[in-house]
Amino acid sequence: MIDSHAHLDSPRYDEDRDALLARAWAAGVRTILSIGIGEGPDTMHQALEISRRYAHRPPVPTIWATAGIHPHEARLADDAALARLNGLLQEPEVLACGEIGLDYFYDHSPRDIQKTVFARQMEIAAGRRKPIIIHCRPSGTSSDAWDDTLEMLRTRWSGTGLGGILHCFTGEWRHAREAMDLGFLISFAGNVTFPKAQAIRDVAAAVPLDRMLIETDAPFLAPLPNRGKRNEPGWVKEVAVKIAELRGIEAGKLAEQTAANFRLLLRPPAAGEGHDFAQ
What we know:
The chain is α/β, with parallel strands linked by helices. The protein has one domain (2-266): Metal-dependent hydrolases (TIM Barrel). It has helices at residues 17-26, 46-53, 79-88, 111-128, 144-156, 173-181, 198-206, 236-247, 251-266; strands spanning 2-6, 31-34, 62-67, 94-103, 132-137, 164-166, 184-188, 212-214. An eight-stranded parallel β-sheet has the order 1-2-3-4-5-6-7-8. Strand 7 (184-188), helix 7 and strand 8 (212-214) form a beta-alpha-beta unit. It is globular, with a radius of gyration of 17 Å. 49% of the residues are buried.
Protein backbone atom coordinates (compact mmCIF):
# COMPACT_ATOMS: atom_id res chain seq x y z
CA MET A 1 0.00 0.00 0.00
CA ILE A 2 0.95 3.64 -0.45
CA ASP A 3 -0.14 6.34 1.97
CA SER A 4 -0.28 9.24 -0.44
CA HIS A 5 -0.59 11.99 2.19
CA ALA A 6 0.85 12.05 5.72
CA HIS A 7 2.39 14.80 7.82
CA LEU A 8 5.37 12.84 9.12
CA ASP A 9 7.07 16.00 10.35
CA SER A 10 4.31 16.63 12.88
CA PRO A 11 5.65 17.23 16.40
CA ARG A 12 3.11 14.65 17.52
CA TYR A 13 5.47 12.00 16.14
CA ASP A 14 8.68 13.28 17.70
CA GLU A 15 8.69 10.70 20.48
CA ASP A 16 7.98 7.56 18.43
CA ARG A 17 8.50 8.25 14.72
CA ASP A 18 10.76 5.19 14.27
CA ALA A 19 8.20 2.87 15.88
CA LEU A 20 5.34 4.43 13.92
CA LEU A 21 7.14 3.79 10.61
CA ALA A 22 7.93 0.24 11.64
CA ARG A 23 4.23 -0.31 12.36
CA ALA A 24 3.36 1.06 8.94
CA TRP A 25 5.75 -1.41 7.31
CA ALA A 26 4.26 -4.27 9.32
CA ALA A 27 0.78 -3.22 8.15
CA GLY A 28 1.85 -3.49 4.50
CA VAL A 29 2.64 0.17 3.74
CA ARG A 30 5.66 0.33 1.47
CA THR A 31 5.64 4.03 0.52
CA ILE A 32 4.57 7.25 2.23
CA LEU A 33 4.34 10.72 0.72
CA SER A 34 5.43 13.11 3.47
CA ILE A 35 3.68 16.45 3.01
CA GLY A 36 6.05 19.38 3.30
CA ILE A 37 4.05 22.31 4.62
CA GLY A 38 5.48 22.21 8.14
CA GLU A 39 4.07 24.78 10.51
CA GLY A 40 4.47 27.40 7.77
CA PRO A 41 6.93 28.40 5.04
CA ASP A 42 9.94 28.41 7.38
CA THR A 43 9.58 24.68 8.07
CA MET A 44 8.35 23.26 4.76
CA HIS A 45 11.78 21.64 4.27
CA GLN A 46 11.22 19.19 7.13
CA ALA A 47 9.45 16.57 5.01
CA LEU A 48 12.50 16.38 2.74
CA GLU A 49 14.76 16.00 5.77
CA ILE A 50 12.64 13.08 6.99
CA SER A 51 12.73 11.49 3.54
CA ARG A 52 16.52 11.58 3.61
CA ARG A 53 16.85 10.54 7.25
CA TYR A 54 14.97 7.30 6.65
CA ALA A 55 16.39 6.43 3.23
CA HIS A 56 17.87 2.91 3.12
CA ARG A 57 16.62 2.13 6.62
CA PRO A 58 14.38 -0.94 6.41
CA PRO A 59 12.07 -2.10 7.74
CA VAL A 60 10.37 1.24 7.19
CA PRO A 61 8.51 2.44 4.09
CA THR A 62 10.23 4.50 1.43
CA ILE A 63 9.42 8.13 2.14
CA TRP A 64 9.08 10.73 -0.58
CA ALA A 65 8.35 14.39 0.08
CA THR A 66 6.43 17.41 -1.14
CA ALA A 67 6.85 21.12 -0.48
CA GLY A 68 4.28 23.88 -0.46
CA ILE A 69 2.61 26.70 1.42
CA HIS A 70 -0.78 25.79 2.88
CA PRO A 71 -3.58 28.34 2.35
CA HIS A 72 -3.70 28.88 6.12
CA GLU A 73 -0.21 30.40 5.93
CA ALA A 74 -0.61 32.18 2.58
CA ARG A 75 -0.19 35.52 4.33
CA LEU A 76 3.40 34.46 5.15
CA ALA A 77 4.33 33.65 1.55
CA ASP A 78 6.80 36.43 0.80
CA ASP A 79 9.34 36.34 -2.02
CA ALA A 80 11.88 34.55 0.16
CA ALA A 81 9.37 31.79 0.99
CA LEU A 82 8.47 31.31 -2.65
CA ALA A 83 12.15 31.18 -3.60
CA ARG A 84 12.65 28.53 -0.92
CA LEU A 85 9.78 26.54 -2.42
CA ASN A 86 11.32 26.80 -5.86
CA GLY A 87 14.57 25.41 -4.53
CA LEU A 88 12.89 22.52 -2.73
CA LEU A 89 10.97 21.49 -5.83
CA GLN A 90 14.20 20.84 -7.71
CA GLU A 91 15.23 18.12 -5.23
CA PRO A 92 14.70 14.59 -6.60
CA GLU A 93 12.95 13.35 -3.45
CA VAL A 94 10.34 16.12 -3.69
CA LEU A 95 7.70 14.69 -6.02
CA ALA A 96 5.03 17.39 -5.95
CA CYS A 97 4.08 20.87 -4.80
CA GLY A 98 1.58 20.85 -1.99
CA GLU A 99 -0.61 20.91 -0.26
CA ILE A 100 -1.71 24.19 -1.77
CA GLY A 101 -5.11 25.66 -2.56
CA LEU A 102 -7.96 27.49 -0.86
CA ASP A 103 -9.51 27.23 2.60
CA TYR A 104 -12.61 29.36 3.16
CA PHE A 105 -13.69 27.49 6.29
CA TYR A 106 -11.12 29.01 8.64
CA ASP A 107 -9.96 32.00 6.55
CA HIS A 108 -6.66 32.14 8.43
CA SER A 109 -5.37 34.12 5.45
CA PRO A 110 -7.49 36.58 3.45
CA ARG A 111 -9.06 34.98 0.40
CA ASP A 112 -7.49 37.32 -2.11
CA ILE A 113 -4.06 36.49 -0.69
CA GLN A 114 -4.86 32.78 -0.76
CA LYS A 115 -5.68 33.05 -4.47
CA THR A 116 -2.55 35.03 -5.25
CA VAL A 117 -0.28 32.59 -3.42
CA PHE A 118 -2.06 29.60 -4.96
CA ALA A 119 -1.43 31.05 -8.42
CA ARG A 120 2.22 31.83 -7.62
CA GLN A 121 2.81 28.28 -6.42
CA MET A 122 1.22 26.83 -9.54
CA GLU A 123 3.63 28.90 -11.61
CA ILE A 124 6.60 27.62 -9.63
CA ALA A 125 5.41 24.01 -9.82
CA ALA A 126 4.88 24.30 -13.57
CA GLY A 127 8.40 25.65 -13.93
CA ARG A 128 9.77 22.64 -12.06
CA ARG A 129 7.44 20.23 -13.90
CA LYS A 130 5.92 18.91 -10.68
CA PRO A 131 2.26 17.95 -10.09
CA ILE A 132 0.29 19.79 -7.41
CA ILE A 133 -1.61 18.54 -4.37
CA ILE A 134 -4.77 20.47 -3.63
CA HIS A 135 -6.31 21.42 -0.31
CA CYS A 136 -9.86 22.70 -0.71
CA ARG A 137 -12.29 23.46 2.08
CA PRO A 138 -15.38 25.60 1.47
CA SER A 139 -17.23 27.73 3.99
CA GLY A 140 -20.03 25.75 5.56
CA THR A 141 -22.34 24.10 3.04
CA SER A 142 -21.34 26.43 0.20
CA SER A 143 -19.30 25.28 -2.80
CA ASP A 144 -17.45 28.60 -2.93
CA ALA A 145 -13.93 27.28 -2.45
CA TRP A 146 -14.58 24.42 -4.88
CA ASP A 147 -15.86 26.83 -7.52
CA ASP A 148 -12.83 29.08 -7.14
CA THR A 149 -10.34 26.20 -6.98
CA LEU A 150 -11.64 24.52 -10.11
CA GLU A 151 -11.77 27.81 -11.98
CA MET A 152 -8.13 28.46 -11.14
CA LEU A 153 -7.14 24.94 -12.14
CA ARG A 154 -8.95 25.34 -15.46
CA THR A 155 -7.38 28.68 -16.29
CA ARG A 156 -3.94 28.41 -14.69
CA TRP A 157 -3.03 24.73 -14.53
CA SER A 158 -4.78 22.48 -17.05
CA GLY A 159 -2.51 23.63 -19.87
CA THR A 160 0.59 22.29 -18.10
CA GLY A 161 -0.45 18.66 -18.58
CA LEU A 162 1.04 17.85 -15.17
CA GLY A 163 -2.12 16.96 -13.27
CA GLY A 164 -2.26 16.55 -9.54
CA ILE A 165 -4.22 15.23 -6.57
CA LEU A 166 -7.35 16.42 -4.78
CA HIS A 167 -6.30 15.45 -1.28
CA CYS A 168 -8.77 14.23 1.37
CA PHE A 169 -11.70 14.67 -1.00
CA THR A 170 -14.91 15.95 0.59
CA GLY A 171 -16.63 17.56 -2.38
CA GLU A 172 -19.48 16.48 -4.60
CA TRP A 173 -19.35 14.12 -7.56
CA ARG A 174 -19.46 17.07 -9.97
CA HIS A 175 -16.29 18.48 -8.41
CA ALA A 176 -14.51 15.15 -8.68
CA ARG A 177 -15.63 14.69 -12.27
CA GLU A 178 -14.40 18.11 -13.34
CA ALA A 179 -11.08 17.62 -11.55
CA MET A 180 -10.58 14.28 -13.26
CA ASP A 181 -11.27 15.97 -16.59
CA LEU A 182 -8.39 18.32 -15.70
CA GLY A 183 -6.02 15.41 -15.06
CA PHE A 184 -6.37 15.03 -11.29
CA LEU A 185 -6.54 11.95 -9.10
CA ILE A 186 -9.05 11.86 -6.25
CA SER A 187 -7.65 10.84 -2.86
CA PHE A 188 -9.74 9.53 0.02
CA ALA A 189 -8.78 9.62 3.70
CA GLY A 190 -9.99 8.11 6.97
CA ASN A 191 -13.15 10.19 7.04
CA VAL A 192 -14.57 7.87 4.38
CA THR A 193 -15.18 5.46 7.27
CA PHE A 194 -17.13 7.92 9.44
CA PRO A 195 -20.84 7.15 9.98
CA LYS A 196 -22.06 10.51 8.64
CA ALA A 197 -19.77 10.49 5.58
CA GLN A 198 -22.15 8.81 3.14
CA ALA A 199 -21.67 11.58 0.57
CA ILE A 200 -17.92 10.89 0.53
CA ARG A 201 -18.56 7.14 0.24
CA ASP A 202 -20.87 7.74 -2.70
CA VAL A 203 -18.08 9.52 -4.56
CA ALA A 204 -15.52 6.87 -3.54
CA ALA A 205 -17.79 4.23 -5.04
CA ALA A 206 -18.09 6.15 -8.31
CA VAL A 207 -14.55 7.37 -9.03
CA PRO A 208 -12.86 5.06 -11.55
CA LEU A 209 -10.34 2.83 -9.83
CA ASP A 210 -7.51 4.10 -12.02
CA ARG A 211 -8.18 7.70 -10.89
CA MET A 212 -8.08 7.10 -7.14
CA LEU A 213 -5.57 7.30 -4.29
CA ILE A 214 -5.79 6.45 -0.60
CA GLU A 215 -4.24 8.41 2.26
CA THR A 216 -4.34 8.96 5.99
CA ASP A 217 -3.70 12.73 6.34
CA ALA A 218 -1.97 11.56 9.53
CA PRO A 219 -1.90 12.67 12.29
CA PHE A 220 -5.45 13.87 11.50
CA LEU A 221 -8.68 12.02 10.63
CA ALA A 222 -7.97 8.59 12.07
CA PRO A 223 -10.35 6.06 10.50
CA LEU A 224 -12.65 3.77 12.40
CA PRO A 225 -12.08 1.93 14.69
CA ASN A 226 -9.43 4.44 15.80
CA ARG A 227 -11.35 7.66 15.28
CA GLY A 228 -10.32 10.34 17.76
CA LYS A 229 -6.81 8.98 18.19
CA ARG A 230 -3.62 10.29 16.64
CA ASN A 231 -3.66 8.90 13.10
CA GLU A 232 -0.70 7.07 11.57
CA PRO A 233 0.24 5.74 8.11
CA GLY A 234 -0.35 2.09 8.97
CA TRP A 235 -4.04 2.83 9.30
CA VAL A 236 -4.36 3.58 5.59
CA LYS A 237 -5.30 -0.10 5.45
CA GLU A 238 -8.68 0.79 6.97
CA VAL A 239 -9.30 3.27 4.15
CA ALA A 240 -8.46 0.59 1.57
CA VAL A 241 -10.73 -1.94 3.24
CA LYS A 242 -13.69 0.45 3.42
CA ILE A 243 -13.45 1.59 -0.21
CA ALA A 244 -12.92 -1.97 -1.43
CA GLU A 245 -16.05 -2.97 0.48
CA LEU A 246 -18.00 -0.17 -1.21
CA ARG A 247 -16.85 -1.36 -4.61
CA GLY A 248 -17.18 -5.08 -4.03
CA ILE A 249 -13.52 -5.87 -4.70
CA GLU A 250 -10.60 -7.24 -2.72
CA ALA A 251 -8.71 -4.69 -0.63
CA GLY A 252 -5.49 -6.00 -2.14
CA LYS A 253 -6.68 -5.11 -5.63
CA LEU A 254 -7.54 -1.58 -4.54
CA ALA A 255 -4.17 -1.19 -2.83
CA GLU A 256 -2.34 -2.43 -5.91
CA GLN A 257 -4.20 -0.12 -8.30
CA THR A 258 -3.88 2.99 -6.13
CA ALA A 259 -0.15 2.32 -5.79
CA ALA A 260 0.13 2.09 -9.57
CA ASN A 261 -1.82 5.35 -9.91
CA PHE A 262 0.60 7.05 -7.51
CA ARG A 263 3.63 5.91 -9.47
CA LEU A 264 2.15 6.92 -12.81
CA LEU A 265 1.33 10.46 -11.67
CA LEU A 266 4.25 11.25 -9.37
CA ARG A 267 6.98 9.22 -11.08
CA PRO A 268 9.29 8.60 -8.13
CA PRO A 269 12.93 8.45 -9.21
CA ALA A 270 14.52 5.16 -10.09
CA ALA A 271 17.25 3.66 -7.92
CA GLY A 272 20.28 5.91 -7.94
CA GLU A 273 18.24 9.09 -8.40
CA GLY A 274 17.19 10.36 -5.01
CA HIS A 275 16.83 7.17 -2.95
CA ASP A 276 15.65 3.68 -3.78
CA PHE A 277 11.93 3.14 -4.30
CA ALA A 278 10.64 0.23 -2.21
CA GLN A 279 8.45 -2.13 -4.18
